[in-house]
Every structure is written in C-alpha cells, then in structure tokens.
Write a structure and sequence with these properties.
Layout (H helix, E strand, L loop, with lengths): L3 E6 L3 H12 L3 E7 L14 E2 L2 H6 L4 E4 L6 H10 L3 E5 L6 H13 L4 E4 L6 H11 L6 E11 L9 H17 L3 E9 L9 E8 L4 E7 L1 E13 L2 E6 L4 E7 L7 H4 L6 E6 L7 H13 L9 H20 L3 E2 L3
Parallel strand pairs: 1-2, 1-4, 2-3, 4-5, 5-6, 7-10
Antiparallel strand pairs: 7-11, 8-9, 8-15, 9-10, 11-12, 12-13, 13-14
Helix pairs in contact: 3-4, 4-9, 5-6, 6-9
Amino acid sequence: MANLRAGLLGLGMMGRHHARVLRQLEGVDLVAVADPGGDPHGAAGGLEVLPDIHALIEAGVDYVMVAAPTQFHTEVGLALAEAGVHALIEKPLAKDVEGARALAEAFERHGLVGAVGHIERYNPALQSLRVRLEEGELGEVYQIATRRQGPFPARIADVGVVKDLGTHDIDLTAWVAQQHYTSVAARTAFKSGREHEDLVAITGMLSGGTVTNHLVNWLSPMKERVTVVTGEKGTFVADTLLADLTFYANGLIQTQWDDVAQFRGVSEGDVVRFAINKPEPLKTEHEAFRDAVLGRESDIVTMRQGYATVAVAEAAIESARTGSAVDITA
C-alpha cells in the first residue's frame, strides 16, 4: 500500500513540531506545506512553502494537519471538507460554537475523518489514568480538579485563556470520566491589558454527578499541568508535564484516638507512583489519526467532541459575563 500523502497548514510554533512528527510517521509522507507568513522556523525541510489551503489541496494530499490560528479553522476546515480531504485540526476546533458545529457537520456529511488536536488525551499519564478508572481502581469518581497555569505565550492573539488552555481541561475531564458537562459556573479576570481573559476559575458538574474544578491562567511565572481525580478509594494525581501518575490510597488502619475517630472521613494510606511507558503524545496523536484515515480502529478526538468542548468553553465565558451558572444540553 502506498503511503498516505499528508499536508501541513501552518509553520509556526506548533507547526514545526507537527512537521517533525509527520516526517517520522510510518506509512505517511509529508508532501506539501503552506503558510502565508512563510517558514520562520525552517520547518519546510526543502518543500516549497505554498501560500494557502487551496494550493495545499491542489498538491493532491490525502489529509491535512491544520496548525493555523484558531480564527481561520472554520474557513480552512470547510474548504478541506468540500475538497474531500481528511483533516486533523489543532484545538480548539473553532473560535466559536457556530463554526465548530459547521465543521463537525461538514465532515460527517462528506464521510470524512475529522479530528481535533486535543493532545492531552494522548499524554501517557492520562492514558494510564483513563484505563485505571475504567477498571474500577478508584471506585466511584467524586471530583476532577485541574490546574493549568504559566506565563503568557506570545503566539496566542485571537482567543483568551478559556478557549486556548481551558479547552484542554474541559476535553480531558470529560474523556477521563466518560461523562459530559451539564453545567458550569465561572469567573474570569483581565490583568495583562489584552481584550481576552487571561485567568479563569471554572466549577462544573458532569452527567454522572462528578464535580469538576479548573484553575487556568497565563499569569503565573511557574508552569503547572496537574489533574487530580478523587474517588471512593483514594486519589490519582497526573502530572502531564512529566507524564507521571501517582495514586494516594485511602488508609485501612482504624484510628484509635477517639476524638479523631469521631470525624467520619478518610485517612492517609499507601502512595504508589506508577512506572509507565512515556511515548511522545504528539506522535501518539498522529498515529491515531493516521490509523483512522486508514480505516483501522483508533481513538481520535472527533469533531463532534471538539464541538462539545467549544460549547462548554463558551458557556464558561457566558457564566463569567453574567455571574450565573449556565446549563449545558448534551
């Protein structure tokens, strides 16, 4: 079987990493790249830098990795759908819920594989966590809390922290729990002089009764990416910067001190840090999309799921604007 012909739109900070992985991907040839801004990082690797998505389509590609700014996702994605080209689009799927819905419907209508680059799903720590939750190692899941903070990335100009960083946590939380959001309440702040929010605190409820909490900002000098899942049997902590997964078990030793024993809660038990394989998440993401295009069984983030994530993000922004919780219909 001939290799798949892949194209890449966008040669910026993320595009250069996609170019590297596509060149390493078995069964795939990176045959064309495009960016109206040129190739600032030298990612083209000898390929002609085409001017736009239409030139990329004309190059005869089977699928395209879209690493363009969020504001162009809908226009670019719809052009690919009309041309019959499969697409993996960087997150968030679109700048607004209308664009995200249009993309999901277009790719479904044309029978194409459309996916969203929510790369955290492919982090080894979260992959292992998802399996362990499915196998009942935590019992009932009570709460999922995430922290995602760090300095402002100069590459982001068209969306705020909710749609850029917060969508990571919205997607991974629904995926890990295998539940959808039913409501959110949020507060935002604007501290860096930009038109978009740079800090958000979101509280949510999932369809299975799990409570969620997301703290996200571009205002911290330290970088943190942590997911904490608390349940019936203890707590999992996934550090996705290091791809580490740790389990804090509820204690099994009965407290003998009467005054303390009257408090009905849990006690500290064993702590286990799991040894897990740590493949590069971006490579795993691309392998999953390649397999989906080839018709193999694969776990991709569908555009329909990407649309749901954008809808939750917009509900959080609306909640912050109005000061009221917002219900989300599935």
